[in-house]
Design a protein that fits this description.
Layout lengths: L8 H28 L2 H12 L4 E5 L2 H15 L4 E3 L2 H4 L12 E5 L9 H10 L3 E5 L5 H5 L2 E4 L15 H21 L3 H7 L3 H6 L3 H4 L8 E3 L4 H11 L3 E5 L5 E6 H6 L15 E2 L3 E2 L5 H11 L3 E6 L2 E7 H6 L4
Parallel strand pairs: 1-2, 1-3, 3-4, 4-5, 6-7, 10-11
Antiparallel strand pairs: 7-8, 8-9, 11-12
Helix pairs in contact: 1-7, 2-7, 3-7
Amino acid sequence: MAAGVLSPGPAGNRDLACAARVLRTEAEALAALADSLDGAFLRALDILHGIAGRVVVSGMGKSGHVARKIAATMASTGTPALFVHPGEASHGDLGMIAKIDAVVALSNSGETHELADIIAYTRRFGIPLIAMTRNGASSLAEQSDVALVLPPVPEACPLGLAPTTSTTMMLALGDALAVTLLERRGFSAADFREFHPGGQLGRALLKVTDIMHKGADLPLCRLDSPLSDVIFEMTAKRLGCVGVTDEDGALAGIITDGDLRRHLTPELLAERADSIMSPRPKTIRPKALIVEALREMNDKQITTLFVVEADRPLGIVHIHDCLRAGAA
């Protein structure tokens, strides 16, 4: 028992036992669901992967809450999706469902009467319908093109009434569809960031090209540039270094403010850039994440990295840029 935490006592022990029973019941249900996956799941995937439109997810009550989450997960992982409330569908929102879409309808019993108009609409216009239900003999399952039938496991509610295990299985099955579609499409971390530009996740997936200094802000000089020009360039760009390029425009070296201090003599300004530059500067590829750039700078104890493609400098990233972008 952790310091300062009191023993739960008899009532607390009963509560903990109840909570553990719920979690174990739902965990066993998910294991049964995984074992039940078959050709129906693959047919559903084929339908959702092959449509030109969106996945329309619908459900009533608790199933509706799960349906909203499934639609949100699909939309954020590369499968265009939206939620349509079955009640609102009967009052005009059927127009949100196009002939190039597919519908995923959730109903524990498979007899949710609010879904009747959506079911009829899909049958009328030949829109693929995927059912997610625990009743394989239900009207919803029989009318669907593919029925994803949940295994017959008990609800965690001791009364067997509150949707608990069934909604957990629906939620997990929706995740299974979304993630498998993600893998089929080869959806990458860069793609994921496009749908998650805000918050910590969006910052963690920023690439160096998103924050690098480029164009007129990129500090560069030629091998034969006089150091007077190098000092002017370094002062103007305020990044503490200048990249040195050869006659082909490839990055050949780097001059830092420390290099200038170490070579400070009365004759310095008459020297060429290549006389004091450090060859083979540390670089990073354009598609690298800023967290990778930050790690590289920390490991090498440097403050800047040139972003290079085919030996040509595209930009430069400073450690402060990474920190401001939230990479730390």
